[in-house]
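Worked example 2:
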Amino acid sequence: MTNNKAYCWIVDFIEQGNWLSLLLLVASLPFSMLFIRIFWYIWFVTWVAEWLLKLKFLQKPQLTNWKILIPFIGFAIWCLWNWLSLIWSIDTNATWCALGREWHLICLIPVMLWGVNKYYSWQTILKVLVYSALTSVFVYLLVHYWVVNSARALDKFYPTIEHLNLLTMDNLLLETKHRLHYANILQMALVALFMLFNDRKHRFSTTQNIFLTLLATAWLLLGIFWCGSRIAWISLLAITAIFIVTKINKKWRIVVAISALAIGIFAGVLINTFRPRDGQFTLQERLYYNPQDTLAPSNEIRIAIWHTVFENKQDYPFYGLGDNCSQEYLTEKYAEKGWINHHIRRFSTHNQYLALWMELGPFAVVFFISIWLLLPCYFNGRAKQWSTSLATIFFIAMTTENIFSSQEGIMIASVLLLIIFLLSEDINVIPYSDSDCVERKII
């Protein structure tokens, strides 16, 4: 009996640790990539430990609705495609370096098959995401301008900016978070906020709570504006349009649509007028930034890169160059064209679909697009609402950035995809049948 109680205590301890690590993982999304890595590994290791401890009670996978596994199998096939590209890669070293980033998507499959523990609560997860996003906007606005302004003030006292003690803080909070990744997280936090607002158990019925929800919405929109990402506003307008069509009463649709369009146009004018991203140089970028350099607007840079991709399409007709080889290939083309700035900064395609075409061929592009377009079709209820918003945001964002060509982008996407499963009504608790271990299901 003593051993039995010890077993139950260990299982419960690991379950709570697994749940806590997931909350910390979600809370770390708007912050440094260092935190995301640490809590991801802790979460998955504790899940595996919990699974092994309960292995004697697991006769078969616990998933009841196998349909929701289809898109994740699609991502696994895409990952395998990346790994197989090592066979024909033009730069095997670059491909080898990239092979480890896709495993985060594959890790989701066993979690979906066998479920999670009794402590998981989708409401708590969404709340943590909202609170963390709201906090991050305050932290970034406060710390960023303090760090950058302090650095500018102290420039004349130091031969190089890297001697500043503030560099560590700037690295921790700014340099490891891509502006578009951050904008995507803030958009999903907005979705989480409205999902909580519309949930019957958490409906904000009082005037005060409605006011706080509007205040939180305005604060998150400020954070998105501060990112300076124009494509983020396009995706935000897209998910707003979907929300208007599917959720709002007909008599309010025109009012909300006009308001959303007005806010979008106003934000776009502000971004192009004041350009908040111009002041967002991190300390590392300031080491080589020369104010006298003339750099074309980002849209012109992207168009020039995309033209180069199509100009050399004969080099990657069917099977591509190999995973993670497009940037090196383009860097050589920039040198041939005499594009010094492009060559020095090693610009990527700034388009995930073009990067896939160059690296894996046109069939991989069609397959990858179909995964995202069909993603909402496999879910119902709140999981469908979340997956629709996520698919819309990422599908649009990938037209201007290589989100899935970096570990940061894949890890953030993996966490947001995991939340789809946790929102699903088909989620299961990993069972164990022991006389001294009482199983509780609270999801």
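The chain has 19 helices and no strands. Residues 156-175, 277-296, 438-443 have pLDDT under 50 and may be disordered.
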